[in-house]
Task: inverse folding
């Protein structure tokens, strides 16, 4: 259950961070206005809190692993929201990042690790 909780939290963090950044982008670059930017700032703030609910107590480990989730999530967001079509190298890179997440977060560790 702990791994499932952690995965859900990573997905929520990605949604908040990537969605927040996208809203700011839309508000500024696409000139949709300050409300879009404000919504993005709120979403980015929510992202900052989501990581605190991860079951692992190590901030550095969580943020390092989240980097891989962010890479894969960004490509997924771009596909769904912006119609981006990743090539095989994009997908290979994202898979490698997710493998890194699995190793960093879920590899068996002894008491001294």
Result:
């Amino acid at each position: 259950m702990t791994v499932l909780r952690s995965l859900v939290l990573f997905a929520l963090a990605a949604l908040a961070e990537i969605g927040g950044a996208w809203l700011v982008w839309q508000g500024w670059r696409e000139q949709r206005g300050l409300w879009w930017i404000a919504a993005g700032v709120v979403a980015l703030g929510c992202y900052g809190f989501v990581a605190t609910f991860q079951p692992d107590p190590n901030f550095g480990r969580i943020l390092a692993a989240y980097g891989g989730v962010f890479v894969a999530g960004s490509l997924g967001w771009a596909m769904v929201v912006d119609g981006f079509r990743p090539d095989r190298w994009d997908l290979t890179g994202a898979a490698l990042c997710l493998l890194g997440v699995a190793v960093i977060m879920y590899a068996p560790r002894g008491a001294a690790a």
